[in-house]
Design a protein that fits this description.
The protein has 20 helices and 15 strands. By secondary structure, it is of the alpha/beta class. The chain folds into three domains: about 70 residues, no CATH class; about 325 residues, Alpha-Beta Barrel (TIM Barrel); about 35 residues, no CATH class. The strands form four sheets. Strands 4-13-12-11-10-7-6-5 form an eight-stranded parallel beta sheet. The radius of gyration is 25 Å and the shape is globular. The C terminus is likely disordered.
Length: about 550
Amino acid sequence: MRKLFIFSNLLILALLIGWSLIWKPAVWSFTIFGPLFLLGIYDFFQKKHTITRNFPVFGHLRFVMEDLRPKVYQYFVESDTNGTPFNRQNRSVIYQRAKKVDDTRPFGTELDVYQNGYEWLNHSIAALSHDQLKESPRVKVGGPDCLQPYSASIFNISAMSFGSLSQNAILALNAGAKIGNFAHNTGEGGLSDYHLQEGGDIIWQIGTGYFSCRHKDGTIDFDAFAQRAVLPQVKMIEIKLSQGAKPGHGGILPAAKVTPEIAKIRLVEMGEDVISPPYHTAFSTPLELMHFIKKLRDLSGGKPIGFKLCVGHKSEFIAICKAMIETKIYPDFVTVDGGEGGTGAAPLEFSNSVGMPLREALAFVYDALTGFDLKKHIRLIASGKVATGFDLVKNFALGADMCNSARGMMFALGCIQALECNSNTCPTGVATQDKSLMKGLVVQDKKVRVANFQKMTVSSALQMLGAAGLKHPCDLHRDFIYRRTSHSEILTYGELFPYIPKGSLLISPYPLNFEKDMAISSPETFVPDYKKVSPVQVEATSV
């Protein structure tokens, strides 16, 4: 596409020059159109803006539209409910931080503080100055059986696969992670050479398709896993149980995006949609999951092993906790993905209507681990529309130790949310395997933007902590965050998500909001036994 454009530009320019020499009035047309063709040539070779590099001249319309857009937004015009576009205010902040442009605002808040759902952090008169804050706090990930604990950043790149993203996008993300000393999650699409080339820290995600470590029948190949898991660049391994944007469905890579290279990396066939099963074949019960975790930890040389899930039936996570207690095998971390999480391809109903939202899920998982007195062994990672410093702060208050971002990192790469991720026609070269579009994304430029965005977002979160009189994210608790629930009612996170006492799920009677799920859950199965709490109702329903 780009070669054709430059050739046609030169040809038309030559014709205009020749025409103007033969027919004098044509000089005016050359005067008008000549600069546009020269601008097109410049756009083709510049490396700062992917849109104008891929679509010379016409790409400038994007910047015209940005200048014409309203300067004041209602925060909830594009709400944070499932399935809606990321709100425009956050996108603007991400772009500015990625470019290291001043992101301060005049005139004060642009939000409706009386809107239901408005949230804020309580500040302190005894606020801390910047030099009293720790510049970049780290979190040690690794439980009692971990031989190679990892010192992680509090803000990392969430799971996005090569195949869903282009090779240039993967290279830029990993190079940005290297610059900023944070981690890059591979997504379930496998561990490719592009994840390793730039030297950034890697969290290798193992999904239900076991890509990069599978037999031809789709089952896991433990020998192939062991060969890659011991690579020094692989710092942690994450087992994906479910994903926020399509929980219970499995991953989807449309056939149009399956290149020979991707097929080789994933060990799949060409010409067909690559669909991950909705369940794992390596285990089928909570107890088996624990032993699977232990096996992966042993094969990796003792690296941190955890799992990612979007919470569905609460009893299933309770069953996993019971299995931890019974086996004394603990994951080193749990990643909680909210139902509002993003994806490149998913059925509309799954994106909009399946899976627990992040705030409720995160609070529940933290409380469950605390109730079983397991939190001391396990780090919590929050993922799902995390993009600003306040997003980090809210998640820390609910119990997260770290946060992951996918959409925010994509915007830092230059994503304009064209919503063509599943069609292989992404105009910014982020989510496509079309080489002519991919070339527009210049790794050397975009890796710096990724690092800038991560650094400035962490800095923003730390400044908010300082405003609250706190030095470290672990000092936050739920009473620091307030939410307006109606025009006349305001509640803290502590009131919305009340804590339960440590160890309270080890001995009956249990906290009231856990009683039913404790009764119907078992470490021997993921399937809840509702007959234990309402046999008459279950029997009537089945009839």
